[in-house]
Write a structure and sequence with these properties.
The chain is an alpha+beta fold and 429 residues long. It has ten helices and 21 strands. Helix 1 runs antiparallel to helix 10.
């Protein structure tokens, strides 16, 4: 960690000190309240501007049926793909430290990944059913040895969006409905599943388009472990969590924290409601630790990571990244249709952005399938964290897709006034 002057740290303040209307923030809050018991049973929201936390509120219950266990502000949520932001931060620290190059082929670090492979059929991430190869690419091959870490970080590697890695099994035992928990994953099982990822068919030629891929971030996590010479969970702790003093962030939380952990859905595979077990099946099949998903954390810890980037790579006395690296990570690297990608970060989409209509065009963030998000507007020096357990009620995405832009629009209205009632001030359309 480089020496640096103390950088701005989050602190609580009244809304007016950061240019917010307190009454307008209550309107934003009402949008979250409308979604309770419909989109999710529990939520924690944090809003900070100029390093001042002007809003940090918990909503709902962990047990909505009995109206018990009110959601605490320090709730631990399964943040799903927000894990990717922590993974990416660790990797870029390794880049800055000279361990690896951003445009270095992945196979130079993970030789098992190299070689020529066909373009083949894939799998639907939600339905988990096979999808045929695209006619345009049928019969073609990809040289995996040419895939770079930049390709992984921009989701242009050619890897499929999803494959059911968790069903790869080195034994004769059927695992689709067994009583599964992270502690049951033995090293042989994990190694078999990682090896399968390295050899899957590609979905399209490298750099031909953008396809958001969990497989690419799983591979990135394995590269971090190889470079750091230690398991991914220890590498993330050393390179990100400990420097930022994020004591509430980690994989596979202990049972002693169960009262603070928001439950997620009743898993069809594991046949029980999940609480403290990662929701994502592939992360679970890898023992709860993966580069794409698996972290449990609080709204506050996610906000600290966001403030690190707003500060140009420093937080308090921790200097994790240079401003040049932060700028490279948060600029447009690639675009495809409505999507725009930085390095590991989503950028505000051209249409239908989850951060709403009024965040600036250079805003960046990420969402998590479980109902979490972090969005940062550097022009306004603003960050917004939304933590929910929306998969408690199942995997239908319509409710959370309506809530996210409506809420973020209301946050901007609380700074700059009413934009003619965007979304009608409600999550209903």
């Amino acid at each position: 960690m480089r020496s640096a002057q103390v950088a701005r740290q989050l602190m609580y303040a009244s809304p007016d000190r950061a240019g917010f209307s307190a009454s307008a923030l209550e309107h934003a809050s009402s949008i979250v309240e409308q979604a309770l018991d419909r989109v999710f049973p529990a939520a924690v929201v944090l809003i900070a501007r100029h390093g001042l936390v002007v809003y940090h509120r918990a909503y709902g219950y962990f047990d909505p049926e009995q109206r018990q266990q009110p959601t605490p502000k320090d709730s631990l949520f399964d943040v799903a793909s927000l894990t990717k932001l922590f993974t990416t931060t660790a990797f870029m620290r390794l880049v800055e430290a000279g361990y690896v190059g951003l445009d270095q082929p992945v196979a130079e670090i993970l030789p098992e990944f190299g070689g020529r492979r066909p373009i083949g059929g894939t799998e639907d991430p939600l339905a988990k059913v096979p999808l045929p190869v695209e006619d345009t690419y049928a019969g073609r091959e990809v040289d995996a040895s040419a895939v770079t870490f930049r390709h992984l970080l921009t989701h242009t590697s050619g890897l499929a969006a999803w494959r059911s890695v968790y069903l790869q099994n080195p034994t004769e035992q059927a695992i689709s409905v067994r009583d599964f928990s992270p502690g049951q994953v033995i090293p042989q099982e994990r190694a078999t599943r990682i090896a399968a990822i390295y050899k899957y068919d590609f979905a399209y030629p490298t750099a031909a388009k953008v396809v958001y891929s969990d497989l690419g971030l799983i591979i990135l996590g394995e590269a971090i472990a190889r470079l750091a010479g230690k398991p991914l969970e220890l590498a993330l702790r050393e390179w990100v969590l400990e420097p930022l003093r994020l004591k509430d962030t980690g994989f596979t939380p202990p049972l002693s924290l169960a009262s603070r952990i928001a439950p997620t859905e009743i898993c069809a595979w594991r046949q029980r409601r999940l609480r403290g077990e990662v929701h994502d099946e592939n992360a679970a099949g890898l023992g709860g630790v993966a580069g794409h998903a698996g972290l449990f954390t609080t709204a506050w810890d996610v906000a600290v990571l966001g403030q690190l980037y707003l500060n140009g790579g420093t937080y308090g006395d921790a200097a994790l990244l240079t401003p040049v690296t932060v700028a490279e990570m948060t600029r447009e690297q690639v675009a495809w249709e409505e999507m725009r990608r930085g390095l590991g970060w989503m950028l505000k989409a051209r249409q239908g952005a989850s951060c709403g209509s009024f965040f600036s065009d250079d805003s960046y963030g990420h969402t998590g399938f479980t109902g979490t998000s972090l969005w940062i507007d550097p022009r306004r020096d603003l960050l917004v964290v939304v933590m929910t357990n929306r998969v408690y009620y199942g995997r239908d995405v319509e409710g959370i897709l309506r809530l996210r832009p409506a809420f973020h629009d209301a946050v901007i209205q609380a700074i700059e006034g009413d934009y003619h009632g965007a979304h009608g001030g409600t999550i209903d359309h």
